[in-house]
Amino acid sequence: MNIKKFNTIPEMLPIKAIVKETDTIWTFVFDAKVDGWELGSKPGQFVMMWIPGFDEKPFSIARDDGKEFWLTIAKVGPATEKLFTFKVGQYVGIRGPYGTSYTFKKGDHLALLAGGYGAAPLYNVALHAAKLGCKIEFIAGARNKDLLLYRERVKKLGGGKMAGKVKYHACTNDGSEGFAGFNTVYLEELLKKDKTINKILTCGPEVMMKKAAELGVKYKRESQVSIERYMKCGFGVCGQCCIDDTGLRACKDGTIFDGKTALKFKEFGIYHRDSVGMKKAW
Amino acid sequence: MTNLKVKFCGVEFKNPTVLASGVLGVTAASLKNVIRNGAGGVTTKSIWLNGNQGHKNPTMLGTEHYFLNAVGLSDAGIEKAKDLFTEYSKPKRLAPIIASVVANKIDEFEDLTRAIVELDPDVIEVNISCPNVEDKFGIPFACDPMQAAHATKIARKVLNGLKSKIPLIVKLSPNTPMIGRIAMACAEAGADGFCAINTVGPGMAIDLKTRLPILANRVGGVSGPAIKPIAIKCVNDVWKATKLPIIGTGGVMTGEDAIEMIMAGATLVGIGTMVYYRDVSGFGEIVKEMDAWCKKNGVKDLKEIIGCIK
Questions:
Q1: Nearest C-alpha of chain B: how many angstroms from A119?
Q2: Range of the domain at A137
Q3: Most CB atoms closer than 10 Å: which of A41, A243, B141, B236?
Q4: Which residues pair with A145 in a beta bridge?
Q5: Residues of B in contact with A239 (CB under 8 A)
Q6: What is residue B133's predicted lDDT score, i.e. its pLDDT?
Q7: Residues A138 and A196 placed together within one structural domain of the fold
Q8: Which among A6, A245, A276 has CB closest to B277?
Q9: Catalytic: B130?
């Protein structure tokens, strides 16, 4: 028996660097490979991060190139507030990677539809998909241009060797950059114009992802969505993240689901549950 | 063909595997998914009258030998439970559902039992043995024969008053040197059967780097492969002491583990932590493994081997 196979004790890693995206969104950088441990994640997967002595939360992986991995984290509650007091060199516990991943193959023409923080994990998709030889339309949505997370990184990805392979499309509610309006409206126009786009991979607010999955059905393109739920264990045991009516677990059977499958979920885009299992509307 | 159907306190289960309380038990959809994966019945996560927040994360961790958890009995209370039972029963129940109930004051079991009867569970399991709330609520009732009997008596009185035929079982703790005596006290107080055992310990795991206990609650109940021999021995003690039906729970990972539990005295076999090691599909696999063992060993009906050890 592989002695480490069933080990879910957090791996203690020092924070290697902290990149401030905005005042309230920071990217924490870690080594992806240390003695006897390797993250080995696939795009779309997440990790559980233990803030020692305080709390442990799931975070999606914004980059894993085998050497480093990044977690881009928004300060939204007590746990992340605590984390934002941490300095480079301090240790946190990481377990994972967990969950399913986005799937794509060489030659795919991908529409990556990102809403808000969803840009971070989709950047990881873009990174891997571009290397594999996919063509990428990265459609980011935010309230205004200052909230277009990862804009420069994605644009940079589209330069140099990858020139023409990755195209960045900004959509802002206030029109301060790019298309003025919802990114789903922009996506629909793009799908109408460009019949070669064969997959829509999306991450962001659930209402947006639901719309994207519906567009996938309407225009006969495959879609993949990322369903986030309140999680405790991250490995499919506690039952906190089960999705109605299927009982599938967001953490293990997801988080990445085929869009058509997700559209059958009674709660998709409608409600989720809190830490004691009560329903909450989105 | 082996007869894997069993009757437990008069309730029929299509096979002896039952989802243990605390695993995959937050929603009706999740419980139904466990049934679709082969379980003969399910137990809800423990239900409080008024809900309970539970502990912060980390709440669970595991190794190849053991699993440690301190979820802290998080639950939203009876209103959510009503929703769960309604959903679980739509359009009809696929398998029996056991309502696990918990309270931090013994007297609260009265109102709780009354409220639970209205949901019409197939069995009521009084959880007096969770070690995760010790600090908050003191030593589990299940570690004291008087308190264990008192909790049982309260629930019994409510059921009798309502003329309810719902079987009443008590979930026992292994963390006492006298589980047999405690079971006897509960039997005298009106228990129809038992679930044994709850998690062992509590235990602790320490991170060497930060020198901190990993679980936010510092300590948590131990389950998984390591506790099987303790569970087997406790089930046998309870069986010898009472001869009442038992849901034998603790460390069951395979069909042969389940057979061992039945030989110790169990009628049903509780399975929870197995999901960590084999995933939810393990329920169906274990049933197949039990069937294969029975065929190979000429056992036609599981009744033949309940408590059969010499």
A1: 26
A2: 100-226
A3: B141
A4: none
A5: 23-27, 30, 45
A6: 66
A7: yes
A8: A6
A9: yes
Q: Which helix (H) or strand (E) holds A94?
A: strand A91-98
Q: Residue B120's domain is classified under what CATH number?
A: 3.20.20.70
Q: Name every chain A residue with its beta carbon within 8 A of the beta carbon of B61.
A: 8-10, 95
Report pLDDT for A159.
Answer: 78
CATH number reported for the structural domain that contains residue A197 in this entry: 3.40.50.80
Of the pLDDT bands very low, low, confident and very high (cuts 50, 70, 90), residue A1 is very low
Q: Report how many domains make up chain A.
A: 3
* Beta carbons within 8 Å of A42's beta carbon, 6+ residues apart: A97, A101, A102
- CB contact (8 A) between residue B23 and residue A239: yes
Q: What distance in Å separates the CA atoms of residue A63 and residue B301, rounded to the nearest whole number?
A: 56
Q: Do A238 and B33 touch (CB under 8 A)?
A: no
pLDDT score for B134:
63
A163: contact with B, CB 8 A cutoff = no
Residues of A in contact with B60 (CB under 8 A): 8, 232-233, 235, 237-238
Residues A109 and A211 in one domain: yes
Q: Return the SS3 of B247.
A: strand
Check if the beta carbon of residue B42 is closer than 8 Å to that of residue B97. Answer: yes
Q: How many domains does chain B divide into? A: 1
Residue labelled with tokens 């990265």 = A138
- Read off the pLDDT band of B136 (50, 70, 90): low
Q: Tell me, yes or no, whether A235 and A206 share the same domain.
A: no
Residue B307: HSE in the Cβ half-sphere, 13 Å Cα cutoff: 17
For residues A81 and A149, membership in a common domain is answered with no
B113 pLDDT more than 70: yes
For this complex, say whether ipTM is above 0.85. yes
Task: Write down the pLDDT at residue B2.
Answer: 80
Residue A249 pairs in a beta bridge with A242
A67 contact B CB<8A: no
pLDDT at A3 (0 to 100): 52
Per-residue pLDDT of B62-99, as tens digits, reads 999 999 999 999 999 999 999 999 999 999 999 999 99
Give the predicted TM-score (pTM) of the model: 0.95
Calculate how close chain A gets to B288, using CA atoms only, in Å.
22
Q: Among A2-6, B62-66, B173-177, name the one with the lowest average pLDDT.
A: A2-6
Instruction: Give the sign of the dihedral formed by CA B283, CA B289, CA B291, CA B294.
Output: negative
C-alpha dist (Å) from residue B20 to A277, B11, B147, B198: 18, 17, 23, 9
Domain of residue B274 covers 6-51+73-204+224-305
**Disruptive mutation site among B19, B21, B30, B66 for chain A (greatest number of A CBs within 10 Å):** B30
CB B29 to CB A50 under 8 A? Answer: no
Interface test with A, best of B61, B82, B89, B215 (most A CBs within 10 A): B61
Do A125 and A138 lie in one domain? The reply is: yes
One of B130, B195, B234, B294 is an active-site residue; which one? Answer: B130
